[in-house]
Design brief:
The protein has 506 residues and is an alpha/beta fold. It folds into 2 domains: 8-230 and 451-463, Aldehyde Dehydrogenase, Chain A, domain 1 (3-Layer(aba) Sandwich), CATH 3.40.605.10; 236-424, Aldehyde Dehydrogenase, Chain A, domain 2 (3-Layer(aba) Sandwich), CATH 3.40.309. Helices cover 38% and strands 18% of the residues. The protein has helices at residues 8-26, 29-45, 47-58, 62-85, 135-142, 156-172, 186-194, 207-218, 240-259, 280-287, 299-313, 345-350, 352-355, 375-382, 405-418, and strands at residues 91-94, 108-114, 118-121, 147-150, 180-183, 200-204, 226-229, 236-238, 271-275, 294-295, 319-322, 325-328, 334-337, 339-344, 363-369, 386-392, 419-424, 463-469, 490-492. The chain has a 7-stranded mixed beta sheet with strand order 11-14-15-9-8-16-17, sandwiched between helices. A 5-stranded parallel beta sheet has the order 5-4-3-6-7, with helices on both faces. The radius of gyration is 25 Å and the shape is globular.
């Protein structure tokens, strides 16, 4: 198969990745885990130098970037343990059964194998945790897939420095040549995504670019999976009881969540639905003293935020709770302070087209709802898919035994239909790196709402199931052997049980 569309440099990258795929897939879980942990250790050793570059290129604070390196290392170590445990392989064994309910059953065994080379398009707003060695990259390498990272143009020097650390660690750990590469440029990324040797894509970024790349992946002669994390407005619902109980605490948490990292987080609460006439706007004003300005990631993002902010402020019925603002320095960088606005539900409906789009920056909208509002119905009316949805309740409401319990249950059900993570009495920013995490949601939050980019389930995106029928032991993958040399969890359907299926329900 020819690959004339690639430049010589890109051809060398893809060819090496493809050549490395069989050997990398054959590495033992322990060896792959040691290599991934070696990368984590190397990143933490290089943290000071990497953070210094990151501050200069992104404008994010030293504290934020330092904690992000730690998070990145934790993600890598989590996946190291995950791949050695082997539960993600979902090994299933159905021994041969001559007395099977439908006739003789052959011996069938099913597990998951690495897809092959994967391209990961890194994000601008998480220059470590969703970039060169971020969660997607960790999952790809843990799965045993060669990784090609397309660096983000917002932090090219940091991408190169991080890649050098990772490549050195992987090589020192004995991983096959070609398992990791870094490339630059959107055109290069698109060209690699189109190449038939690439078996999947991952992306974190805007809806526009994510949709473009997803369409390319789907329209290839042989379509491939594409896992994009795109846009989310993360609606919050706050009850009158919660505000009466702790308005000051809610106001402080809301402001922190909206303003953290200049609001450039995919989990920032874009809207908060609150009772009309509540004390929360005043509590927010009281909590907003001396909020510092923060540089946005790059001039393009800053200009986009300024335009979005102006459009929101100009919409009928919108009134500032905190004015905030943005100024541009001599280099074109934007420095913003948080803007919080309020609008009635009627005006929100009237200006829906102007208001519901995500504002990527430190801005959020309070939507004031009448007492008789069906809040569950607001989800499909105003939002599509989201990464998160949040509900703030009073202590009594949290027991599920208050007059509005049925309404709250309906709201929780509505949230669960349209988000990947439902939060109670907390804030959506700050995504815990832990096995049960779900960081995904229906379109346009992601391109595939059955997947996650955080948590141990993320590894399954880069595997495919294969069943082996009547295979001699010598030809079975280790997870499917009766002696189970890797000690992975195995789900076994014993011979003879099929004739009792369903009997318990008679």
């Amino acid at each position: 198969m020819s690959h004339e569309t690639l430049s010589p440099e890109l051809e060398a990258v893809v060819a090496r990745a493809a050549a490395a795929a069989p050997a990398f897939a054959a590495t033992s879980p322990e060896d792959r885990a040691r290599a991934i942990v070696a990368v984590a250790d190397a990143l933490e050793t290089a943290k000071s130098d990497l953070v210094t570059i990151g501050i200069r290129e992104t404008g994010l604070t030293e504290a934020r970037l330092s904690s992000e390196v730690t998070r990145t290392a934790v993600q890598l170590r989590l996946f190291a343990d995950t791949l050695v445990d082997g539960g993600y392989l979902d090994a299933r064994i159905d021994p041969a059964d001559p007395d099977f309910a439908l006739g003789v059953r052959p011996d069938i065994r099913r597990t998951h194998l690495p897809l092959g080379p994967v391209i990961n398009f890194s994000a601008s707003n998480f220059p470590f945790a969703f970039s060169v060695m971020g969660g997607d990259s960790a999952a790809i390498l843990a799965a045993g897939c060669p990784l090609i990272v397309k660096a983000h143009s917002g932090h090219p020097e940091l991408s190169d420095a991080t890649a050098e650390v990772a490549a050195t660690a992987l090589a020192a750990a004995g991983m096959p040549d070609g398992v990791f590469h870094l490339i630059h440029g959107r055109e290069a990324g698109v060209a690699v995504l189109k190449d038939p040797r690439i078996k999947a894509g991952a992306f974190t970024g805007s809806i526009t670019v994510g949709r473009l790349l997803a369409d390319i992946a789907a329209n290839r002669p042989a379509p491939i999976p594409f896992y994009g994390e795109l846009g989310s407005v993360n609606p919050v619902f706050i009850t009158a009881g919660a505000i009466a109980e702790r308005a000051d605490v809610i106001a402080s948490g809301y402001l922190t969540s909206v303003s953290g990292s200049a609001g450039q987080l995919c989990t920032k609460p874009g809207f908060a639905f609150i009772p009309a006439g509540s004390a929360l706007p005043e509590a927010i004003r009281a909590a907003a003293d001396e909020l510092p300005e923060h540089r946005l990631l790059d001039p393009r993002i800053a200009r986009s935020f300024a335009e979005r902010r102006d459009a929101i402020l100009a919409s009928p019925g919108v009134r500032p709770v905190i004015d905030g603002g943005i100024r541009f320095d001599e280099h074109g960088h934007g420095w913003a302070t948080p803007t919080i606005v309020a609008v009635s539900l009627d005006d929100f409906r009237h200006s829906k087209e102007a208001l519901v789009e995500e504002a990527f920056g430190p801005l959020s909208i309070l939507v004031e709802t009448p007492a008789d509002t069906d809040h569950a119905a607001l989800m499909p009316e105003f939002t599509e898919g989201n990464l998160t949805g949040t509900l703030h309740l009073s202590a009594d409401e949290a027991t599920g035994d208050t007059p509005n319990a049925a309404e709250l249950h309906a709201l929780v059900d509505a949230l669960a239909q349209q988000v990947g993570r439902v939060l109670f009495n907390g804030w959506s920013t700050g995504v815990a790196v832990t096995p049960a995490q779900q960081h995904g949601g229906p379109w346009p939050a992601t391109t595939n709402d059955s997947s996650t980019s955080v948590g141990t389930a993320a590894i399954t995106r880069f595997l495919r199931p294969v069943a082996y029928q009547n295979a001699p032991t010598a030809f079975l993958p280790a997870p499917l052997r009766d002696d189970n040399p890797l000690s992975v969890p195995q789900s076994i359907a014993p011979a003879g049980e099929s004739k009792s299926w369903g009997h318990r329900w008679h």
